[in-house]
């Protein structure tokens, strides 16, 4: 194997960081191209793979290069308890747009309308991956491939199409926007080609997105509670989709 630190430097400017064993495991499972992966303890990392990720153990064996602790620490913002880090090639915008446009769609697209919290965005990508959603689209300025979003997504950006688009560029399909003022979601069956939109943590749905929505839906919530957290709202809505006749993730 060529010098891993040199390979790291070659890819650092264009690739995205996979921070920790689990992020690397997920990325490999979902077909990410990983040009370099390092660990401070190859034996321990491969033992973990044997225990938790037999399906990608061979790939990890071929990829993981052991580096001294200080070298590893110089590559990551803060050392991960598993002592594993890797770089992955970010899927092209064209590939993501193709995946988002593919019809017939077998699972919804989640839209986060101008999200502000990087941790929420990561949690939503993890949810979308778990439910087999077609993709997660963000509007506004937040970069859904920001390192903090990647950390929250646990390497699952590679399991769904993650892209930033304008409200006027959203994928086709009936647009269901979630808002406490909408109709009760329990009376609605969400189709597989649904586009499910959620508002910003601070200000809710933008006027542009509201104007484009075909349906406004509310999640059951007791009076005097103003709203749920963004990621938990996505979780409830995807669960509702999965439980009301659409394809099941498992
Ligand atoms: C934290 S909330 C936004 C709160 C914001 N202060 C507002 O004025 O709407 C983030 C998003 O979660 C979704 N959400 C939260 N609670 C909901 C509920 N009870 N019904 C439907 N959607 C909800 C909405 O899409 C909302 O825009």
TrEMBL record:
GO MF entries: RNA binding; RNA methyltransferase activity
Q: Which Pfam families match?
A: SpoU_methylase
GO process annotations (BP): methylation; RNA processing
Q: Kindly give the SUPFAM superfamilies that the UniProt entry links to this protein.
A: alpha/beta knot
Taxonomy, superkingdom = Bacteria
Q: Which keywords fit this entry according to its UniProt record?
A: Methyltransferase, Transferase
Q: Does the keyword field hold Transferase?
A: yes
The tRNA/rRNA methyltransferase SpoU type domain sits at 109-239
Say if the entry is tagged with keyword GTP-binding: no
This protein's name:
rRNA methyltransferase
Query: To which species is this protein native?
Result: Streptomyces capoamus
């Amino acid at each position: 194997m060529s010098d891993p630190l040199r390979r790291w430097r070659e890819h650092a400017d264009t690739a995205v960081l996979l921070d920790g064993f689990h992020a690397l495991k997920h990325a490999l499972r979902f077909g990410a191209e990983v040009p370099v992966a390092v660990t401070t303890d190859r034996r321990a990392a491969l033992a973990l793979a044997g225990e938790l990720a037999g399906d990608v153990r061979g790939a990890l064996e071929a990829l993981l290069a052991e580096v001294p602790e200080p070298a590893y620490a110089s590559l990551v913002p803060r050392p991960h308890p598993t002592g594993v880090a890797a770089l992955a090639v970010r899927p092209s915008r064209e590939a993501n747009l193709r995946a988002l446009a593919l019809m017939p769609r077998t699972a919804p697209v989640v839209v986060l309308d101008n999200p502000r919290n990087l941790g929420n965005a990561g949690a939503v990508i993890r949810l979308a991956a778990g439910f087999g959603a077609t993709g997660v689209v963000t509007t506004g300025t937040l970069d859904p491939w920001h390192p903090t979003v990647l950390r929250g997504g646990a390497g699952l950006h590679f399991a769904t199409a993650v892209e930033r688009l304008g409200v006027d560029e959203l994928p086709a399909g009936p647009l269901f926007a979630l808002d406490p003022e909408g109709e009760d979601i329990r009376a609605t069956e969400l189709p597989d080609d649904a586009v499910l939109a959620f508002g910003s943590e601070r200000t809710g749905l933008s006027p542009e997105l509201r104007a484009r929505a075909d349906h406004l839906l509310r999640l059951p919530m007791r009076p005097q509670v103003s709203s749920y957290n963004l990621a938990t709202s996505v979780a409830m809505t995807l669960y509702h989709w999965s439980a009301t006749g659409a394809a099941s993730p498992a």
